[in-house]
Structures
1.
Amino acid sequence: MALEVNGKTYETDEEGYLLNLSEWDEDIAKVLAESEKVEMTENHWEVVNFLREYYNDYQIAPAVRVLTKAIGKKLGAEKGNSKYLYELFPYGPAKQACKIAGLPKPTGCI
Amino acid sequence: MNETTGGIEDGDGSGIVKKFMFVNRKAPYGTIYALEGLEVVLISAAFDQDVSMVFLDDGVYQLAKGQHTKAIDVKNFSPTYRALEGYDIEKLYVERESLEIRGLNAGDLLVPVEVLSSAAMGDLMKTQDVVIGF
Amino acid sequence: MLHIVNKSPFENTTLASCLRVACKGGGGALLLIEDGVYAATKNSIAGNVVRSAMGDIQVYALWPDVEARGIQDRVLEGVKMVDYGGFVDLVVEHSNVQSWL
């Protein structure tokens, strides 16, 4: 499968995750967010950018429990909880935010 | 992802906790064992079990610092071992003899580990409910 | 604890690693299967290693694999033969099992 944005083609898997994360940019992120019916705010970008950083450090997309904990550590307890993250990404912060961030589906997704 | 398990933040203590030991004995890139083993361990973390990882024989090479895989066009998954702590997998054991015969010591590894003698390793293995090798 | 080894001791150090950890840890059992059964042959280097480990660990070999490889007349004394049913019994009898891949 492939997505076309501004004349650029992005390959995705059958669930819509980007195949090549180095191709990621904010334009494709917005398109991926739309496909997830997520309207990106500053808080959304904060999580998406956090995920990209996490991936860059550890070469995996974190499980949601791990993401929650790590966000709490970095951005404070008011953001490091499921309620906050599910409000931003109602269909699962790990799944939706990872997709928008251009990361593979988190390991531990069953 | 089972996002419902992910929602548990304090571990409610329900269910039986078993001791799972994952024994890694293969070097990282020659075969797929190391990567598959690591993925299984990460997934196991979702089930709130007592998980430990053992590195024996060539498995100790999985933890070697300074892995650069660009030129062989394979994903370098060594940084992922540093993520284990965030998954609450903190029991990493390495057999001293496996290190020594390869000219390595704990300082050559990219995560903090507990170095054990063969005997201590054997004792630890006996206490496990489940031992899975990769 | 039951340890299972399925690799020939002549091409691979799995058996040596298993014995190093298992014997010093004390007790338990070793079951040799597939190419692992070659370790149960007498007058071989591997057989000598297995024999000296026998004080610490009870050694079994899977008879169908022994017979298939034609080593049945050269098996070390003290190695107990088991069939597939015996294999299952060993797994059941021990609190845990490690397959040394």
2.
Amino acid sequence: MKPEAEVKETLRAWIIKANGGKIKPEELLDDTPIIEERIITSLQIMDLILQLEKITGEPLDVEQLKPGVFKNIDTIYKNFCSENNRGGGEA
Amino acid sequence: MPTQHEINFDSLEGLYWHKLGQASFSGDLLNLFHQLDQHFVDWSKKWNSAEYQFAPFLSSSQMKKLDYFKSFPHLLTIPVVIDDDKDNLKKFADSAIDEQGKMNLSQLGEIREVLTPAACYHIYDEMEGSDFPHTQYVTTRCVCYRREKSYSPLQRQWAFSMREIVCLGAAEDVKAYLADFEEILLQFFQSQNLPVKFEYATDPFFNPATNPKYLMQKLDPVKKEMIYDGRLSIGSLNFHRSFFGETFSINTSGEPVNSACVAFGLERWMYMLLRERGLKPEAWKLA
């Protein structure tokens, strides 16, 4: 797994691109709520999952996803990319 | 914890049960239906809600905007007509129904409507293209149609009555409305000694694993159900964010409205009261 800062930057770049440039890079912080503030839509969630599978190199079981795991960049990193806590089971 | 009462639906006075999932009421049961609905309407008055009565059909083009045909095709009920070509009508008239009661429809006419599956859809349809300066509160009761695999009196019906109280406006007003209503309901269930708990839920999507909307509801729960006796949803609180505002161009001060609805299934509330309080009408009174 790549270093935390690098993974978060990859996620940030993906989210900004998916958002179509409406949000500026400096506005998208690690704790900015990306679903609640509709920075990404339901249609883009599937693409985000594919992106995460690419980053982690592992398939992701959508049935196991719990509320809050995609809340912001921090929770995504913590739940899917951190070595200590993988799999999307915690919010 | 009060003892629950057994209900024999075959001999329940005032109920006529149609085996394909519909219930007719008379006498005390009909009074209970009206009493419950009035209770919901009284709640709606806290927000000075405007009451509407809607027609039973919704246009299929409006339903397409909601992505309903992809998300819930299994629940849909569609009113059909026979194509009015004279020969076609004669063909239908001569063999309209077989011995098992199944209809032979011959050639169908154009179908552009569906029977309403949720009361609040009519509100967004009615308000399409509007822009209002203040948060709006609206209530309506509709007969809703949802096809199911099996039916059970008062608990799971093809046609059932739904009362909804909807808030449309700025996000903070809509969130405050939901929080206030949840508090009112919590206190109500407690004071009436009714075993109802709130649980996060998702809508019954078709092929949920491939539907991004289902995934979104799992990740960011916006639906809370009122679960009676740990098994039966008697109502729900739903936060739509700006989905209906954007879909139907409903704005407040130029911005798409946020919206939320609180929905009550009348027959299921009747079931709960019969089960909890027994068959004597004097026991059904709500404080």
